[in-house]
Amino acid sequence: MAAARRHKRVASSQAGFLPLKSDLDGKIADIKRRKRVNKNRKKNWNKYSDINDVDEFLDDVRLQERAAGGLISEKPDDGLFFVDFGEKEKDTRPQEEEDEEETVKKSRNSKPLRIDLILQPASHIQAPKNILAFQQPNAKKQRRIAEKAAKLAARGVVPRRERLLQLRRAAATTRVPVKENPACNNPHTPFYDLWTAGTPETADPYYLEQTKKKRVRRPSKLNEKPSVLPAVEIIAPGASYNPDFVSHQELLGEAHKVEVKRLKEEEKLQRQLAVTGEIATEESTFNEQVEGLIEEEEEETEQMRSEEDTEDTAVGPSATHKKKTEKQRRKEKEERIKELQKKAERQVIDRRQQLFQMQSIRDNLKTQEQVTKMRQVQRKANHEAEKSMPRRLGILKFQTPDLDVQLSDELPGSLRCLKPEGSILKDRFKSFQKRNLIEPRERAKFKRLKVKYREKRAFREIQ
């Protein structure tokens, strides 16, 4: 406490320090005595140390730097005081001389008023820099891009963006002018009624689009059919109620092929699902469990015997790898260099030999071109064939319906004996699937809920 008071007295009693606050001495006298505390411990330093006088002294120094531009004791007298000479005596000189002096005074740079000089900030402390005012988003990235552009410009390389801009400008200059619709503010355009049914040809396209009087452009893909198949396919002549013998036999042959193919698929599925091999017995399971154990024991015994033989043969310093001499290393290096030279010479010879194979290379190129053309033709034919095939539009595949065929003994003799077969609705539904208009579907399976019967207590009591 005494040290702090002494420091304040010394600071305030210095000859070069003039405080701006007049009550500094009064505060020194009003300091109360605090109880004496042991300051050997670090936790008592800040708790029981009074540094208010030091803070006041530093605040006064900062105030002088802000208001007066520095310590008042260091400023000259001319910066603090000025001499007042009172009112000037009236000059008895002629009017002409006074006018000349006024013009000379006006021509000179007039000094600012004393009050303006006092109000000007004389602080030597610079204002804090506003970092946010100078920050830019992605400044580092933009600087790196600018440096890269400067390096490319120094080498004469034009960036891609500028190159595209130059091409666009060149294309705009060479573009053929297109006849545009007249402007809406053109006084020479004829008047037309907005509420009429028809629209004039000179109307603004934007107006036509907003008023829904212009038809929406139809996509070109909507004009293409998803399949080249006709909507109604003509059945084979063998499916008639009174067909000739040949056409009926041909239709029977097609139905027979479909049925044979179906049977083969079923047999294949049964073969895949059938259990192959003998049924497992106790002996077979035991052999499977023991399999590999006997062979492993034999391999271990053979390995032990081979290790013993190697130990008997390789004993002493001869068993270790000998260090190669300098002569052997030099010889191996020369052999590697010779192999590399041979490979390089062989490559040169092969390149020279290719000059004499120009005709064969030309023939190979011709054959490759023919093969590519054939593949293109085949690919085009496959693409055309796919147009008549049903595509997979959903999870399920399209299943061709069964052929409606009657056997020879089932053919009716006349139209009166003809019985209706098939369904027109199913036929149209399959036709939509085949022409890729809808995806293949299955009939929804409705699961019937099981009803539980339970007798209530009231019903039991009645019984």
Query: What structural class do helix, strand and pairing data support?
Result: mainly alpha
| Overall outline | extended
Give start-end ranges of low-pLDDT stretches. 313-319
Helical fraction equals 40-55%
Descriptive report:
The protein has helices at about 1-10, 25-30, 50-65, 95-105, 115-120, 130-135, 140-155, 160-175, 205-210, 245-275, 280-290, 295-315, 325-355, 360-385, 425-435, 455-460. With about 475 residues, it is an all-alpha fold. Among the domains are: about 135-180, no CATH class; about 230-240 and about 335-440, no CATH class. The chain starts with a helix and ends with a helix. About 0% of the residues are buried. Its main location: nucleus. It is found in: Nucleus, Nucleolus; Nucleus, Nucleoplasm.
